[in-house]
Amino acid sequence: MNGYGLFRNxxxxxxxxxxxxxxxxxxxKEYRFRYKPGDVRKRPGFVExxxxxxxxxxxxxxxxxxxxxxxxxxxxxxxxxxSPDVLKLLAENPFPNQAPRFLRCQYYEYFFITLxxxxxxxxxxxxxxxxxxxxxxxxxxxxxxxxx
Length: 148
Hints:
5 helices, five-stranded antiparallel beta sheet
């Protein structure tokens, strides 16, 4: 009846950035966010009326290019130095004892699965790897100053 609204059309897929860190550049661990899709078995959270700002901004970052997301680069710099203020915004820190030496961001498309698929697999989502969202970012001693 009325087309007004932030989300006039709902989609059945969504672009997502998965942030990963590594101590050696070989084995990678995923950072988990509180509200955005990540683990395909994690039930989507109900957050209304709370607006999870970081998770919300991550969705918009996925709709843009890495080169155009200055705030996101600052976020990654803060992860690289293990900033407690930034880490507490996440659901899980895969590097509790030391900050990673490398970060990378992968781009995925997430799709809701059917009821039958959910019953068979226990998953809520299906995801398809699209490609890298960012280059591999090595720790740079100047990162600490940039993250301040």
